[in-house]
Structures are given as C-alpha cells and as structure tokens.
Amino acid sequence: MGEVLVGTAIFACLAGASLVSLMVHERFPAHHLGDDTSAVVRLATNLFVVMSSLMLGLMINSAKNTFESINGNVHTFATDLILLDRTLRHYGPEADSARQSLTAYVQRVVETSTADSDTTVVPNRLSELLLNQVGDLMAEWTPTDTRQTATQQAATQQLQKLVEQRWILAEQSEGAIPAPVIVLLVAWLTLIFASFGFRAPRNGTVVFTCLISAALVAAAIYLIIDMDSPFSGPIQISPAPLQRALAELTTH
Fold this sequence. Notes:
Layout: H1 2-24, H2 35-91, H3 96-114, H4 125-139, H5 146-172, H6 179-196, H7 204-228, H8 240-250
C-alpha cells in the first residue's frame, strides 16, 4: 500500500507540474518567452534529464541486487529447513515433537506467504514461539551414545543458523533505496515535466501526452520501489522454495 501511495503522489507531482506550466506560461511577460529564455530552459532540462537517467539506473541496479539477494536467501532458508528436519530424523523418535514444531513453523510461514500479508519471514509472535519451541525441545534431549550427541550438536548449530537467516531476511525486507534519493529524483522529474508546458500549445494532444508520460514514469518508479521490497506488491519473491520445504517435511 505504501508503494501505491508513493506512485500516486509521483504521478500527481509530474502531471500537476506539466499542466500548471501549460496553463500559466501564457501569462508570463513577453521577455520571459523569448528564444534566449527557451534555450536556457532547454539546457537546464537536459541537465536534469541526464542526472535523472543516472539516478534511475542506480535505483534499478540497487533494487535488482536487493531482489536477487533476498531471493537467494529464501532458497538458502528453505534448504536449511530441510537439512534441519533431516538431522532431527537422524536423531531418532525422541525428536518427533521437535519435528512437529518445525513443521508447524514452516506451515505458518507458507500460509503467511500465500495470504499476501507482509512477508514470509517477518517476525511475528506465533512464528517465533514455534521456532523457539524447536530449540527448547532439543535442549531436553538426553543422548545415549556418541551418535546422538553429535546429531544434537549438529541440530543445534543448524537451528542457530536458521534463526540468523530468518532475521537477516526480516531486516532485508525493508528495502535498500533511501527515501531522500526518491524525493530528489521526483524533484528533478518535476522540473523536467514543468518544462514540457513551457511555450507548448494548449490543446488536448499536449495534455494527453503529459498525463500519459507522467503515468508511465510514475509506474516505472513504483515498480522499482516495489522490487526493492520484494515481499509485497506485484513483484514478489516466490514462496515455491518454502512450499517445497514444507512438502519435504510432511512426506515422511
């Protein structure tokens, strides 16, 4: 929802700047509409166009890297879940209760991801309790031989890695593009769109062009921001790795 509001605000700024400039430029004094003034306006616009292009390129690259990094971490997270379950099975029947808690946690994560709530790994009380319960149950084990002792140690290490990975994903879900960068980019684009209406004829074609251009630019920035927050919006991390992990945990 936040990304939609940002995209709508950007469209309003760009479309408003072009339309206001289109309506008021005829009221300027004649010496403000000369060729020399137009040349300076074009030079300033070209400068902002170049700067905006560079900024958009950096934002796209940042959002792409964030998306790919989180996507890779989700696959790692799902793999760690499967490996921990395998280790618990290897310990013996005494680990069945811990496996049940782990399966309940994964089920909760998958339900959250498919319900399009916030994020598949965002910290919430129930999920945290289920994962902590796995550790509490493992701490109650009493190994009877060296094999079970080694398995308990391995499971403890895997659980710790799983918890760390979960919090890493939770921190990454907030995005990496700073708000001041977006504000500065929108300011440059607003000036560019304001120049569109300078000395432009006031007719339906010009108005339509300004509105469509503002909508497309706002949509592009919206998608970049949405990609930077890959657990919400139309561009999301696929829950398929977590669903496969749940299937592995429940097949045996």
